[in-house]
Write a structure and sequence with these properties.
By secondary structure, this protein is mostly helical. Helices cover 78% and strands 0% of the residues. The protein has a single domain, classed as Four Helix Bundle (Hemerythrin (Met), subunit A), CATH 1.20.120. The protein has 7 helices and no strands.
């Protein structure tokens, strides 16, 4: 009798939902339907909080989930940053921090998995905190647009302040993750080893 594949669980399903929600978010945002875009992002943020909580509470954490969860965060944040940059070109220098950070982290994870056959670090509290702060900042920026709070110049100043704080925290999280990355890269600890064939065999069961 075949055993149940542990990768098919609620936390991983919620992570997949986050990937899917990127498309309606981008569509609504570029269509100037900011309220709908904000609701989609809110749902995405809630699934981000729920998947980690469910995984911990019900012991449903998997290696696949630990790799997909931060990737979903990175792609979502990059999508938001690019959409904001298109709308407000003056924010491009700040938003570039998000895109560069996420691109570097994705590249590092691919390098670890593909070349070194090691497991990337799972999400940490500072990474999640940076993500939550990102969602809050974007939510406030969208709310100002939807409800017409403040003048255009005031909204821009507030957006710059919010994104500056978020960028600062993201840089802090990036530095912490970089330390973990280099520790894993140099380590011979078998707990960091990723046996691709073993993972594929588990999927077949």
């Amino acid at each position: 009798m075949k055993s149940k594949n542990r990768n098919f669980n609620i936390p991983n399903a919620l992570t997949v939902v986050r990937f899917v929600l990127i498309f309606p978010f981008v569509f609504y945002f570029i269509s100037n339907e900011y309220l709908k875009a904000g609701i989609v992002l809110l749902v995405s943020g809630l699934t981000d909080l729920l998947d980690g909580w469910i995984a911990r509470q019900f012991n449903q954490s998997t290696e696949l989930g630990q790799m997909l969860d931060p990737l979903a965060d990175k792609l979502t944040q990059a999508s938001v940053a690019i959409c904001l940059a298109v709308e407000e070109p003056v924010l491009i220098p700040l938003l570039a921090i998000f895109v560069v950070k996420e691109a570097l982290m994705v590249t590092a994870a691919i390098f670890l998995i593909g070349k070194n056959k090691k497991k990337p670090s799972g999400s940490k509290w500072y990474g999640k905190a940076a993500t939550v702060l990102f969602y809050i900042s974007f939510g406030i920026i969208v709310a100002m647009r939807v409800f017409g709070w403040f003048t255009g110049e005031e909204r821009l100043h507030i957006a710059v302040a919010l994104l500056s704080v978020t960028a600062g925290f993201m840089i802090y999280a990036f530095v912490r993750y970089a330390k973990i990355y280099f520790r894993i890269l140099r380590s011979d600890d078998p707990r960091y080893r990723l046996d691709i064939q073993e993972v594929m065999d588990k999927k077949k069961k």
